[in-house]
Amino acid sequence: MAGQSIKASLRAERLAARDALSAAERVEKSLSLASHGMAAIDLNDGTLVSGFLPIRSEVDVRPLMDLLRQRGARICVPVVLDKEIIVFRELTPGAELVAGVFGTVGPGLDAAELDPEIMLVPLAAFDRRGHRIGYGGGYYDRAIYRLQQKGCNPRLIGIAFDCQEVASVPEEPHDIRLHGILTESGFRDLSDEAIVKIG
């Protein structure tokens, strides 16, 4: 329980730091992140990549998703189905987006559901070892677990601004470590250290 309390405190603190960035700073930093991401993310034609459509003060990964699509990736984004489950639906240029929960939008029922091979994971906070704090709902943990149960092993790349880094994230048995972290200052490859732990 102490770990959860510390995580909640770190989440609130780092989200406040993210909120404090001006809109212009977020645009500039998001474009820098996209540039670093293009240099760091290896993919083949048809590689399935999940991104996300930004809400609140999140990194805007749409420039990176556009660049990856130009290199041949198929892009999908998470859609919340209920209080427990998210699926990843293909995002095609010009596709109609429908309103979801938590202020999100995403592709409708006619969009293909994909199992991403590379996941761009939004973060509330992270540490240098690749431990992450999400928004507290556990959606990505459950989605990654379901993918692993299907025999998929997606590469997990955390997406955040530098100001969201903390010294240390408390570890819990169900936590899933990232294979890399992408911020406006560059990409940190943690794949040699990244150990996926599912309770």
From TrEMBL:
Residues the record lists as binding substrate: 53, 58
This protein's record includes keyword Magnesium: yes
InterPro entries, per the entry: FTHF_cligase (IPR002698), FTHF_cligase-like_sf (IPR024185), NagB/RpiA_transferase-like (IPR037171)
Signal peptide residue numbers: none
One of the GO BP terms on file: folic acid-containing compound biosynthetic process
Keywords, comma-separated and alphabetical: ATP-binding, Ligase, Magnesium, Metal-binding, Nucleotide-binding
Catalytic activity: (6S)-5-formyl-5,6,7,8-tetrahydrofolate + ATP = (6R)-5,10-methenyltetrahydrofolate + ADP + phosphate
Pfam families linked to this entry: 5-FTHF_cyc-lig
Binding site for ATP: 7-11, 132-140
Cofactor section: Mg(2+)
UniProt EC number: 6.3.3.2
Family per similarity comment: Belongs to the 5-formyltetrahydrofolate cyclo-ligase family.
Name listed for the protein in its UniProt record: 5-formyltetrahydrofolate cyclo-ligase
